[in-house]
Amino acid sequence: MDDASAPRPVAALSFADIVAGAGGRHPTDVLAALNVGAGADARRLASEAARPPPASVLAQGDGLALPHPLDAEWRFDDATADALLARAVDLTQAGEAVLLLGVPTVVLAAARSGAARRFVVACEDNVIGAALAARVAADARFVRAAPEGCAAAIVDPPWYPAVFDALLTQAGAACRAGGWVLVGAPSAGVRPTAADERVASLATAVVAGLSLVADEPDALTYRTPAFELAAMRTSGVSAWLPSWRRGDLLSFRKTGPGEAQPLPPARPAFELTLEGVRFRLIAGPAVPATPLTPLVPDEVFPSVSARAAGRDRANLWTSGNRAFVCDPGSTLQAMLALAARNDLWPKGLDPAGIESRDSPSIDPIQRVDELARIAARDLAHAAMLVGVSSWDRSVNDARFLNGSSTAFRRTLRGGPG
Description:
Elements: H1 15-20, H2 27-35, H3 40-49, H4 78-90, E1 97-101, H5 104-112, E2 118-122, H6 127-136, E3 150-155, H7 161-174, E4 175-185, H8 194-207, E5 210-221, H9 226-234, E6 246-254, E7 269-274, E8 277-282, E9 293-294, E10 316-318, E11 323-325, H10 328-341, H11 364-386, E12 397-401, H12 405-412
Helix pairs in contact: 4-5, 5-6, 7-8, 9-11, 10-11
């Protein structure tokens, strides 16, 4: 009888198998390593990585618009979301509060569950937060209350130390003594500094009154977002990797007092959502009007890392990882025109919109048409990558983020947001 536990020979492995065993290394890094390999197996696997898969549907979130790269939003798959919710329920008593912080698919899991808990949802004030609020508005288990005195919290911070530590400590501050904090964390192979960052985050947790009870490697599975599939295609990875990313589950117990760290300040932005495809314009001082200039020739930026070289030059991003450099004043005017065309009135927008002095002169029709064509390309590309039914295409929205229209306008004039 064959030994099922024996390692499979390389010749029997697929590119997806290699990625799964790479300890969290990104598929594009795995492909780069294969491309320097000299053997036939390396050439076969590299060729497989570049082969487009048959058309498939990869759900991006029931009832939600597409995730956006600037949010670093990787959503748990349904099995992981259900398991995390079940864990929190097991650790708490009927009627106790559970904080759901930055975990949209766990909110959806709670909504479809029969769990007798009170759920406090904390998320960004954007189109995703609005959709979740609408989804649970009629469910009495979801309470509009400050996150405090919770018996448990589930949080999945972006995997960058400053934001990770802030959300971890905020979840801890929201819990009562003896409460539990369940946190999604990067594995050691995600980047060379990941192990050191883990040590530093655990030290931060201790100061915040949290004691690590369990560390479960690769316990969490994430859906690959459409923006990451787009970036991988641009980098040469076309293989079907619907849920390649894994995360560790850290379980903490609240054992002492501690204060929450603030999140790093976010710049004002304006976001326009059309058929679930999201444009986000980051505020900055007005510059001479120029065409929408893609950061790379084919528009789709080849990385999803916030640390990628040159990434911070772009101030207009789509949910398909398209990145552009533009004048924010004239581009905002065009986005507002598109919002008006679709009968969307942004939160905090005054009837006068943005005054003409906030932006150099530009043909508004030309800029609106540019954005409309980009939106069409983004929509078609997302449909090709994850299937036309994988996200809610009825979502249309327009709003200022991280402040009001006044904050955006102030930034255009060179003042602080």
